[in-house]
Specification:
Layout: H1 2-25, E1 31-39, E2 50-53, E3 58-60, E4 66-71, E5 76-81, E6 84-90, E7 97-101, H2 109-118, H3 124-133, H4 139-150, H5 160-176, H6 180-193, H7 197-209, H8 213-223, H9 230-246, H10 250-266, H11 270-287, H12 290-305, H13 309-325, H14 329-345, H15 359-372, H16 376-392, H17 396-412, H18 416-550, H19 554-574, E8 580-581, H20 582-599, E9 604-610, E10 620-621, H21 627-638, E11 645-655, E12 658-665, H22 670-676, H23 679-683, H24 687-703, E13 707-713, E14 721-728
Parallel strand pairs: 1-7, 9-11
Antiparallel strand pairs: 1-4, 2-3, 2-5, 5-6, 8-10, 11-12, 12-14, 13-14
Helix pairs in contact: 1-10, 1-12, 3-4, 3-5, 4-5, 4-18, 5-6, 6-7, 7-8, 7-9, 8-9, 9-10, 9-11, 10-11, 11-12, 12-13, 13-14, 14-15, 15-16, 15-17, 16-17, 17-18, 18-19, 18-24, 19-20, 20-21
Length: 730
């Protein structure tokens, strides 16, 4: 009990003290609602139709049937004309709307029926709109139009969407005419065709109206996990509040109403804010939390006044009932007096659906409030007004109650003659009411039977439709099976082709990767060999310097070192390049030969010849490729010769793509050179020539025989050596 009291106080603190102030601060965001009004039968636009927002702006349709009016979410749009019955539409979004109306003039109704009967292929939408038009007027006629909409027509089948819409409308008819069990079945049938959130909400409400409360709660809670619009979320929470209120669970009822109210406030759905304040008040009143209830009822009254008269009087009646329950009779009487004034000031064309808002009922309840305070004489005029109004409007129930209450008052104040007269009138009304009730029961039974027959007819049509669909499905099943087999075969062939292509692609990728890896390895090997050439060359050059120093020829050593430094700079600058222009290689070679000649002046002379036809910039050559051959010619051929030798280096163009490089010496030859080697020299392998041969082999592998080398003797006695290199441009 303490927990329940705590919840009431908490909700009251956060809700009642702030809700009205917060709503008052919030200004609903208006937008320009655009739409059109068309004839439901012909789809022709209707001009000069009255369009208004209840309690708001007013406009008319133009020649194309279009209109634009300032509105807010939750406002009630009213479409009126003498040519059709008034249409009411609750605005749920700012999207363009199309309002279809049916001609309701008595003289035009037969023409409409005749048009539909003579039209063999009348559209589904015509029948569906007709069913909606008669939904609140004639249940049987409305269901009859649904039946016609679902009947098979030549060359036209009912789509899944149309089937869903038809059963949704049928559920709406059942729910309006208090047949929730049938409504549940029809909403389920609609959802079987197409899942629709609005229909799911209607189904949950139908469960509650059919007193399947647990199914209703389960359906609403499942909807909370769906993707809902703000308006739908308000409806779901409100529906949960209604269901919990029906099973007297005040705590959960208030909780869900409050969630709905918060969502409505956040999205400025003003009419829902009014309704939810009222419903929270009712829930608190039902639970006995009267102070909290009064706070929310005050909010709902203030908000209802801002909407329209019909909504205001409805709320005043509801709050007056609360005051009656709370025995605050003066407040009740004041509200009912205001309700009577507003009912009398309303336009005659405006109808009020709530029977409690009739003038006879309000006068009767005012009289009851006076009787509860034992103010009998003040109650009598209101009872007489109630009786007169009820007699005029043939409201036998109110007339019966009012006449009986009047008889009791006359009896209590001692006016027994009037009491007897009133009681006799009461007996007459009861007899008349009894006859009327018997007629209504008979009509209700007949109505229920006819509706059930029509429902069975619709069920039969649905079964026939499903049977036809099954036959149609069976007729095409073999064709679909053949097509399926063809698709499977094509899929298998395509898959095999794809697998083969993938294998080819994988093989090509693998080959390419191996080739790239091999190329990378070759590049790495070239760099390694090139890095080994530089120390070998430097070591040999330093030996030459050392020889000059050994003989105390300081000037020669200095001059040698100067030229040597130039050579070393060129060698080091080219050491990181894979290829250098042939011109650079010739310059490097000339510098090297000059240094070797400086050391061995008495051993050989040299001559370097370059063919003038060669475009040196078009040919490239690996750096230090020729130097080892020149070094071999000097060190192993010419230096051992007794007389003056000759070193010739020739560059000759064979064709535009190829040149021949010849290195010729008339030294002792390769055979005798080996005899002059010391034992230590024999043990060591020539790194310069070995690395050069390896470099040439790798280059030819990478660049398709770029360099071709041939070494041979010059003279028949094995003296002299000739090295020929064939160098290709690309």
């Amino acid at each position: 009990m303490k927990n329940l009291l705590f919840l009431f106080l908490a909700v009251a603190f956060f809700g009642s003290t702030e809700s009205f102030a917060q709503v008052k601060r919030q200004v609903a965001k208006s937008f320009m609602l655009r739409g059109e009004v068309v004839d439901g039968e012909t789809n022709m636009p209707l001009s000069k139709v009255n369009v208004e927002i209840l309690g708001g702006q007013y406009t008319t349709t133009n020649l194309s049937g279009s209109f634009a009016i300032s509105a807010k979410i939750g406002d009630e749009l009213v479409i009126k004309s003498d040519d059709f019955l008034t249409v009411y539409y609750t605005i749920k979004s700012d999207e363009f709307i199309t309002v279809r109306v049916e001609n309701a003039k008595p003289e035009a109704a037969p023409e409409l029926a005749k048009t539909i009967q003579n039209k063999e292929q009348a559209s589904f939408n015509v029948y569906l709109d007709s069913a909606k038009f008669f939904l609140k007027k004639d249940a049987q006629k409305s269901i009859e139009f649904i039946t016609k909409a679902l009947e098979p027509r030549r060359g036209k089948t009912i789509s899944t969407k149309e089937n869903s819409l038809a059963f949704e409308t049928l559920g709406d008819i059942n729910l309006f005419w208090n047949q929730p069990d049938l409504a549940v079945d029809n909403y389920k049938q609609s959802l079987q065709s197409i899942k629709n959130t609005d229909v799911s909400i209607k189904l949950a409400k139908a469960f509650a109206q059919n007193k399947n409360y647990q199914e209703s709660i389960s359906a609403f809670q499942k909807l909370l996990n769906a993707n809902l619009s703000a308006y739908q979320k308000v409806e779901v929470y409100e529906g949960l509040g209604d269901t919990y209120k029906a099973i007297d669970d005040g705590v959960k009822s208030v909780f869900n109403y409050q969630k709905a109210l918060d969502t409505a406030k956040d999205n400025k759905i003003i009419p829902k804010i009014t309704n939810l304040n009222s419903k929270i008040g009712e829930a608190y009143a039902q639970s006995g939390a009267l102070n909290e209830a009064e706070s929310y009822f005050d909010n709902s009254l203030k908000l209802a006044k801002k909407e329209n008269k019909q909504r205001a009087v409805s709320e005043k009646n509801k709050v007056a009932d609360f005051y009656n329950q709370n025995r605050e009779y003066e407040k009740e009487i004041q509200l009912r007096e205001e309700t009577l004034e507003e009912l009398n000031s309303m336009d005659k064309g405006v109808t009020v659906d709530d029977e409690a808002l009739s003038s006879q009922r309000q006068n009767y309840k005012i009289a009851n409030a006076f009787v509860a305070q034992e103010k009998y004489k003040q109650a009598i005029p209101y009872l007489e007004k109630s009786i007169a109004e009820a007699d005029k409007k043939e409201d036998l129930i109110v007339q019966k109650d009012a006449v009986r209450k009047l008889s009791e008052i006359y009896r209590d104040i001692g006016e027994f003659d009037k009491a007897t007269e009133s009681y006799q009138r009461y007996v007459e009304v009861v007899d008349e009411l009894y006859i009327k009730k018997e007629q209504e029961i008979s009509q209700a039974a007949r109505f229920s039977k006819e509706v059930t027959q029509k429902q069975n007819r619709i069920a039969s049509l649905e079964n026939d439709r499903k049977l036809n669909e099954s036959r149609y499905k069976l007729a095409f099943e073999n064709q679909e099976l053949i097509q399926k087999n063809d698709r499977i075969q094509k899929w298998i062939i395509g898959s095999l082709i794809l697998i083969v292509l993938l294998l080819f692609f994988a093989a090509y990728t693998q080959y390419k990767n191996i080739k790239q890896q091999k190329f990378a390895n070759n590049v790495l090997a070239l760099k390694s060999l090139r890095s080994q050439m530089n120390p070998h060359f430097i070591f040999n050059a330093l030996n030459s310097v050392n020889s000059f120093i050994a003989v105390n020829d300081e000037r020669a050593a200095n001059k040698y070192l100067t030229d040597f430094s130039l050579l070393m700079r060129s060698v080091l600058e080219n050491s990181e390049e894979d290829f250098i222009p042939l011109e650079n290689e010739i310059e490097l070679l000339e510098l090297y030969v000059k240094l070797e000649h400086f050391r061995f002046k008495d051993k050989f002379n040299y001559k370097i010849t370059v063919d003038e036809k060669i475009n040196l910039n078009e040919f490239v050559i690996p750096p230090m490729l020729l130097q080892p051959y020149v070094e071999n010619a000097v060190w192993h051929g010419l230096r051992y010769k007794d007389e003056m030798g000759l070193l010739e280096i020739n560059f000759q163009q064979i064709n535009s793509e190829t040149i021949k490089i010849s290195i010729i010496d008339d030294g002792i030859g390769r055979s005798k050179s080996k005899e002059f080697k010391t034992e230590n020299q024999k043990k060591q392998k020539s790194k310069g020539m070995g690395n050069t041969q390896k470099r040439i082999a790798i280059l030819n592998d990478m660049y398709r025989d770029k360099v071709d080398v041939k070494v041979e003797n010059v003279f028949d006695n094995s003296e002299g050596t000739k090295v020929e290199l064939i160098l290709k441009k690309d």
